[in-house]
Amino acid sequence: MRIPILKLHNYLLISIQIDLDDQTAIQFQEDLLNKIHGSGATGVVIDLTSVDIIDSFIAKVLGDVVTMSDLMGAKVVLTGIQPAVAMTLIDLGIHLQDVPTALDLEQGLIKLRQELEE
Amino acid sequence: MDFQSCVNIKKEWDIVGARQLGRDIAKKIGFGTVDQARIATAISELARNIYLYAGSGKVCFEAIDDMNHKGLSIIAIDEGPGIEELSQVMEDGFSTSGGLGAGLPGVKRLMDEFDIVSEQGKGTEIKVVKWLR
After folding, report:
1. Where is the STAS domain (chain A) (predicted)?
2. I want to staple B43 with a disulfide (CB 3.0 to 4.6 A). Which of A44, B19, B99, B125 is the partner?
C-alpha cells in the first residue's frame, strides 16, 4: 500500500488514513523524500487525525522522516495527533521533542509559514 | 474467563492483525479509547518483538471476568533464542535492533501487570494484564 502525497504550491500534504504497518511506513518515508527531491517542496504537513495508534516503530519512522526532510531543506509539521495517541506515546517514553506539531492541518500550515518565514 | 483467541505472528503484517484484534476485544470488554490505544500499542510492541527476535510465535487474548474484576490478559509466546539480559531489555533506550528501545519498558507502563519469563535457547513468554476501571 502507498500513502498518497499531494502537492499544493510549494507544500506537500499527507493525510495518513490507514493502520500503518512497518513496510508501508518505510515505503512512505522513501516516497516522501523522493517527492521532496523531485518537487522542490519547502514545507510538509503530515496529518495524523485518522491514526489511532503510534507504536515505537512508527514513532521512530515519523521522527526520522522529519530529521531526514530537514537535512534536505524541507520543514515537516505533524498535525492532528489524537489525545489517546499523545498519552500512549508518553507512556512509551517517546517525546518527539524536536518534532514540530500543530493541532490540525490549518494550524500546521500557519506553523509552516512561520517556520519558513514566508 | 470468557474467551481465548490467538494470532500467529509469522509475517510483519500479523503485527497489525494482532493489534486490531486486541483493540476489538478491548472495546467489547468496555475499555475507553485511551486504554484501547494503550492496549493496541502494547500488543504492537509485543508482536514486533516476536517478529524481530524470534521469527515466529503467537499473541493470545483472554477476557477476564471475575466477580469484581474485569480486564484483558494478553500473552505473547515465542520459541526464539530467549533474552540474555532481562534487566537490560527493561531499561529505557536499550536496543539491539536500532529501534528506540522503548518496547518492553513501554509495555510495562502501558499495562497494569507485567510478567516475563525467558529461557535462553527455549523462548520467551510475556504476560500482561489491563484492568477495567
Report:
1. 1-112
2. B19
